[in-house]
Design goal:
Cytidine Deaminase, domain 2; six-stranded mixed β-sheet; globular
């Protein structure tokens, strides 16, 4: 489903005239100083999105109905269903309504090799959701090791500061609704090159990873900045994509820091204004 992203800052009067993708306008009542007044408010759209691989349903996430082809590819790579972007042969978004609930099915056609591996995996593990551990039956299934160490980046405070500042001005859907997260691909000097938004922080990062994989970006040429905490899943998805630095506006978890150390990924939290906390800085890989 091709939809234009709405990511330009808006003036108040423009918000009433524009119809941003990923948002719906609803009647509401604004309470201010003890006075109630009728209003129309932009609210972030959130729909069930089903990932169906070669006819077999694997997972359903609640997500913003934007950049769904990127979402499908990024999720598939992050979850280890696919090894490379070329393993996704086709992606067809289909709007559906089941038992009165509307949603979107992503019909994904993948290579026989990856489909056979997925079927084998499903024999021993129920399909997980975007949270990463739902349906896991063993501890080893819940906390997956990163397959390989990345060529981590040294932390450049000026680049991180620039990235977070630009990130705040590029979130059009967040500025309109106040309800979405963003993940951005940033150049080594901190310039924001690509941004994806979603009601879920995992989904926003998956969408970004999918875009980068489809575009063939070299993961060594930039880093990721996110508007959320740096959870285990956020670190794992970044490292799985081969990206060497993750900067987050909020804190990491202890598990996220341990995974960053194992993956040789630089991890920065509380990146706000001129402040940032480095929880792990990557080391040069031995050759």
């Amino acid at each position: 489903m091709a939809r234009e992203r709405y990511d330009a800052p808006m003036k108040p009067e423009e918000r009433q005239a524009a119809t941003p993708a990923g948002a719906v306008q609803l009647d509401a009542t604004v309470l201010r100083g003890g006075t109630a007044s009728a209003s129309q408010e932009w609210v972030a759209d959130e729909v069930p999105v089903a990932m169906v691989y070669n006819g077999i349903s694997h997972a359903v996430m609640l997500a913003s109905p934007l950049d769904l082809e990127d979402f499908a590819l990024g999720f598939s790579l992050s979850e280890g269903i696919l090894d490379h972007a070329d393993d996704l042969l086709d992606c067809e978004p289909v709007e559906a309504e089941i038992e009165g609930a509307s949603g979107i099915t992503l019909d994904l056609r993948i290579t026989l090799r990856t489909f056979q591996r997925l079927k084998e995996h499903r024999r021993t593990l129920a399909g997980r959701t975007g949270c990463g551990v739902c349906g896991a039956e063993r501890l080893a299934d819940a906390v997956r090791p990163v397959k390989r160490a990345v060529a981590g980046l040294a932390v450049d405070p000026a680049a991180v500061q620039r990235a977070m500042a630009e990130l705040g001005t590029r979130q059009g859907l967040q500025q309109t609704t106040g309800a979405t997260h963003a993940a951005a691909w940033c150049a080594l000097d901190g310039e924001v090159l690509v941004l994806r938004e979603d009601v879920g922080r995992h989904n926003a990062l998956d969408k970004l990873v999918g875009h980068l994989a489809k575009a063939g970006n070299d993961p060594r040429t930039g880093f990721v900045a996110v508007t959320s905490r740096a959870s285990y899943e956020m670190v794992h998805k970044t490292a799985t994509a081969g990206i060497g630095l993750l900067a987050a506006i909020s804190a990491p978890t202890a598990l996220a820091v341990r995974v960053a150390e194992q993956a040789n990924l630089s991890l920065v939290g509380f990146a706000r204004g001129d402040r940032a906390t480095v929880y792990h800085e990557a080391r040069p890989l031995e050759t």
